[in-house]
Write a structure and sequence with these properties.
126 residues; mainly alpha; Cytochrome Bc1 Complex, Chain C; transmembrane helix; oxidoreductase activity; membrane
């Protein structure tokens, strides 16, 4: 699949590509830690009584989770393949959604291309 080879190209052939990959994953983990601290601060100061801001924050947090999942699947090792299979199989109960997200019933190159595009776009939405 071409998406897997593009990740390998970044890691092996670009100058400090490996550093970019690990800085990206470490920075994403740090953003999640800050997000959890922000949620705990909101719970501590009873911001959950403000439903509009609480629900909008919940939607942003769900977009964070979806973005992280799509970034986890992109390197396409064996663990990320099975992770993508299990989590996308949860989408089968919504008719038509699996074809839109994965491009069919088999997870392969079109799925990775969609995940790459969504992984790039979702941070701008959130």
């Amino acid at each position: 699949s071409y998406a897997y080879y593009s990740i390998q190209h970044i890691l092996r052939e670009l100058w400090s590509g490996w550093c970019f990959r690990y800085l990206h994953s470490t920075g994403a983990s740090f953003v999640f830690i800050l997000t959890y601290l922000h949620i705990l601060r909101g719970l501590n100061y009873s911001f959950s009584y403000l439903p509009l801001s609480w629900y909008s924050g919940l939607i942003i947090f769900l977009i964070f989770i979806v973005t992280a999942f799509m970034g986890y699947v992109l390197p396409w090792g064996q663990m990320s393949f099975w992770g993508a299979t299990v989590i996308t199989n949860l989408l089968y109960f919504i008719p038509g959604l699996i074809n839109w997200v994965c491009g069919g019933f088999i997870i392969n190159d079109p799925t990775l291309k969609r995940f790459f595009v969504l992984h790039f776009i979702f941070p701008f939405i959130a």
